[in-house]
Write a structure and sequence with these properties.
The complex is a heterodimer of chains A (224) and B (379). With 224 residues, chain A is α/β, with parallel strands linked by helices. Helices cover 34% and strands 27% of the residues of chain A. Chain A contains 7 helices and 10 strands. By secondary structure, chain B is an alpha+beta fold. Classes of the chains: A alpha/beta (224), B alpha+beta (379).
Chain lengths: 224, 379
């Protein structure tokens, strides 16, 4: 059984009287420990798919099951709790909170757990060590480079040990060198820590790192 | 509290804005504190009024006298247990700026009528033994550096001539709000020396057996002197004090109006500031929700930020108002009770927090209702 099962997924947006089918009849299976890249032109539905897989939005039709839980049937509050437990998000613009240090940013998901302060500290330090920023834990985002900010973002995504990571263009705002470092890090998370990583990207080099690449066009998965 | 830094760090995100918002609260609460001080100062007479005391004045006006002979008639009114009287002297000490209340008092009954004014027995005996004696409140004595034995000249304005008094006593107040800025001289000395208004008193103060009986006793007195050359108007001491306050206009309404306008403006300013603050953090709030923070958490976080600002600003404003009152009456005797009470501080803080709560609620609600997907899409 796959970790993530997507069946007949559809998403329709209403714009006035017009219905826009962003995703249609999409089926997908992702196994645990897989590194999957989604590619496709703008407007192909990549971000919408990521939002649905991350429980940030609900589909118009179809279902998504993650580790046996059908998230498309969950209420808003249950979905919020589910996200906290199962999903680690990595955003293109890093989306760190500028008034918090790297440590405090990474600690955020752990505030939702019952871990003690010392346990939280241990987890945060471990996550920052994995991304190679243990020396920068008391730096604020403005004191870090773009690549370092993204690595803090990855540390935040993995600190609570989620079931899978969803990365929305994680290298889209980085120079080549920083992008490679981030991709190497994601690769390392899959290889060494058995993480499941789903990444949306326009970057062919980024897609090359993935074990499998799925192409989206006009809201449907297509074979290359 | 593990979320503390998340809330506190947001407050220093825009230091100038936070400082200005705290400043708005501080100014508003300073004004609130000051208005309260003034209100209490004006209403002090009502606060200290005895529940079992009535005041009898001339029906025409307080400045019209009543005959001394009324004392015995008042004592015969059923329910009246004790009577005393006083006159307004209205002199000037050195300079007209040195205003303080001077009362020619009934040496027999005044002390018994006003037990809240504490005076040493020896000093009271000295007062009774010297026709030219005077007693001053401790704040007044302190202000003019008077000490017992001093000879105090006062130029009469109603009762012409220069009057010299020997300071025989200094009284204290039993409570903080008791007026310790009065100057007492002997009515019998005034009556003996003056050529005008002989055997006349300014007002009578009565003690009655039961405060519940006040209306009946007052009516009995006024009915008893009806159609006489000196008709009376009898009120409880509290109502008498209130009528004084009313002579200066509806101060309470004025203060309420000013206070309401200030707080309403503060509400709008703070609400607008918080709305801007929330709008600027749309993506961050979306990220918080994406990683699993609930709508309720976001709502509470934004409200908590506003309420901390309100508490800091409110505390600062009230603290400044309190500091201002620590030096006491700035008018030199017109407002003897010039203090910011603990109840006013508590009310001020509660009001500040309420404004913070209301002002923060709509922006907080907007933050709580934020849809993560849409918010992340915004640049």
């Amino acid at each position: 059984m796959s970790l993530i099962e997507v069946r007949n997924l559809g998403k329709i947006y209403q714009r006035g009287s017009e219905e826009i089918h962003v995703l249609r009849d999409l089926n997908l299976d992702v196994d645990a420990g897989e590194f999957v890249a989604f590619m496709g032109p703008s407007g192909s539905g990549k971000t919408t798919l990521l939002n649905l897989l991350g429980g940030l939005d609900l589909p118009s039709e179809g279902r998504i099951t993650v580790a046996g839980d059908e998230i498309t049937r969950m209420s808003g509050s249950r979905l919020t709790a589910w996200r906290a437990r199962h999903v680690g998000f990595v955003f293109q613009m890093y989306n760190l909170i500028p008034v918090l240090t790297a440590f405090q940013n990474v600690e955020l998901p752990l505030l939702l757990t019952s871990l003690s302060k010392s346990e939280r500290r241990r987890h945060v330090e471990a996550a920052l060590t994995i991304v190679g920023l243990e020396e920068r834990m008391h730096h604020y985002p403005r004191q870090l480079s773009g690549g370092q900010e993204q690595r803090v973002g990855i540390a935040r995504a993995i600190v609570a040990d989620p079931t899978f990571l969803l990365c929305d263009e994680p290298t889209g705002d980085l120079d080549r060198k920083s992008a490679d470092e981030v991709l190497e890090l994601l690769d390392q998370l899959v290889r060494e820590y058995g993480k499941t990583v789903l990444i949306i990207t326009h970057d062919p080099l980024a897609a090359q790192r993935a074990a499998s690449v799925r192409h989206l066009e006009k809201g449907a998965l297509v074979e290359e | 509290m593990k979320y503390r830094h998340l809330i506190l760090r947001n407050l220093v995100r825009k230091k100038t804005r936070t400082a200005l918002t705290i400043g708005s609260f501080a100014v508003a609460l300073f004004l609130f504190g000051l208005l309260n001080v003034l209100h209490d100062a004006f209403a002090q007479g009502m606060e200290v009024a005895g529940a079992d005391r009535l005041v009898v004045v001339n029906r025409v006006s307080i400045i019209q006298p009543l005959p001394f002979s009324y004392r015995d008639r008042l004592l015969r009114v059923p329910g009246v247990t004790h009577v005393t009287f006083a006159n307004w002297f209205g002199g000037v000490y050195q300079d007209e700026k040195n205003f303080f209340a001077q009362f020619a008092i009934d040496r027999e009954g005044y002390r018994q009528m006003f037990p809240e004014y504490l005076i040493d027995d020896g000093q009271w005996r000295a007062f009774l033994g010297d026709k030219e004696a005077a007693i001053a409140g401790e704040a007044l004595a302190e202000k003019f550096k008077w000490k017992i034995g001093d000879r105090i000249p006062i130029r009469g304005t109603i009762y012409q001539g220069t009057w010299e008094f020997n300071l025989r006593g200094i009284y204290r107040g039993q409570r903080a709000q008791d007026d310790v800025n009065q100057f007492w001289l002997r009515w019998d000395y005034l009556d003996e020396r003056t050529q005008i208004g002989k055997s006349r008193v300014g007002w009578y103060t009565l003690r009655i057996a039961s405060p519940d009986d006040a209306t009946r006793v007052a009516k009995a007195i006024d009915d008893g002197f009806a159609n006489s050359p000196y008709e009376t108007k009898t009120d409880t001491e509290k109502a008498f004090a209130a009528s004084f306050v009313k002579q200066m206009g509806n101060i309470q309404l004025l203060m309420l109006t000013v206070g309401s306008v200030v707080f309403f403006t503060l509400l709008l300013v703070t609400g607008n500031t918080m709305a801007i603050a929330v709008r600027e953090r749309t993506r961050e709030l979306a990220v918080l929700k994406a990683v699993g923070f609930t709508d309720t958490f976001v709502l509470v976080m934004v409200i908590a930020e506003t309420m901390i600002v309100a508490a800091l600003g409110g505390g600062l404003g009230l603290g400044l108002a309190k500091l201002l009152t620590l030096r006491g009456d700035p008018t030199g005797g017109l407002l003897p009770y010039f203090q910011l009470g603990a109840d006013a501080v508590a009310l001020g803080l509660a009001l500040a927090l309420a404004v913070g709560l209301i002002a923060g609620f709509l922006p907080a609600l907007a933050a709580a209702r934020l849809r993560v997907v849409e918010a992340l899409r915004r640049v």
